[in-house]
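hi! just following up on the protien thing from before. the input was this:
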Amino acid sequence: MKKKLFIVGLLICSVVLSSIPLFTANAEETRLTIGIWATNPETREYLQKELFPNFEKQNPGVKIEIQWLDVNKINEQLLAGFAAGTAPDLFQGGISSFPALYGSQGKIMNLDKFTNSWKDKRNFFDSAWRTGIYKGHVYGIPLSFDVRPLWYRKDFFKEAGLNPNSPPQTWDQLLRMATKLTKKEGNKVVRSGFWVPTTSFDSIQSGWFHFIVQNGAPGLLNEDLKSVAFDSPEAIEGIKFYYDLLWKYNVDVLGGVPTAIPTVPVVAGTSAMAYAGSGQTILDMKKYMSSKYEDLGVTLPLKKKKRAAFLGGTILMMNSQTKYPDVAWKLMAYWAKPENIIKYALADNQLPPVKNVGNNPTFNDPRYKVALDTVRYGVPWPPSAHHGEYRMKIVAMSEAIMQNIKPLEQAIKETASEINAVLDGN
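and the predicted 3d structure came back as:
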């Protein structure tokens, strides 16, 4: 009898214990938030349906939550999040400037302890790896590049009697060819010889920035980051040349020739030449103008004193207050695997910042080869902790010049004075 009661008791206990979990799902689950600024539907789909779910499968108990960031308000969103204690564990930002801005404030983590022994860092272009460094320490891992060689349309070259295999290499050649390539109906320009954007960041990053660095300026700031460089004689000459392309030589019209499709003018066929993002230009040409794809030409950036071009891109950083630094780093390293970072960059219409792309047939295209070769001539926004304070001042200056709101040298002098006061205040 006692034996039966003992057995019954064991059965009851086993049933009761089996109905009580040893630990709750919440206690086991690690929720990692990540701030993403991608707007491309293909990019979002890759992250939501492939990259992050695959990481979660390989790391049971980890759940990734996405915070979508507005690229035009990203600094405001992030700073508000840091102030409220709700900033994501990981977040994207612009190369060079963001590691400096948030690294100087102690808001992102010094990643040296993770990267010192990380073998995969050898996969990155040296120029790419440097964009995540601030004051000698690693604060971000580059995810993608937006490098801007000179794109042109071979069919328009043939139409104008120019050799489609001999695009311009110098400023003088650009001016001569752009003038010849400009197409008019009466006095109306219906196709620009060279795209001259006059608004927002395009007026800088696809515009005069190329000409100031080709003429010897180090970039927007001097190398010590204590004063601006765009007011030097070399920079002023570069901005003046760009301004004259529009207002003196009339190779484009203010606001650009209207396009029927949402892409860069050289793809839409409203411009014969343009500095434009490589990934977007190639993929949009395939998407919108596939029948003309073989007419898409590309060459290295122009040279005056040297070859140089704008280099943009995105970088991944870690919140210094994250509760899960090891898990966050694991995701960073997973994302940076060549097969993952290449897929991400292509989905985002960008270039991958890694050297070993040879196994991916996409990069057999000679256009990609020229674009990747342009990386070595790339100059990014300066790694300044004051980036958030001065970037819109430069945009305002650019628009004032290119839209004839202020005389060129006056706009440059006034903006230089304002920004130097900011830089000198540190």
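The two ends are 87 Å apart (CA to CA).
Residues 1-27 have pLDDT under 50 and may be disordered.
cheers
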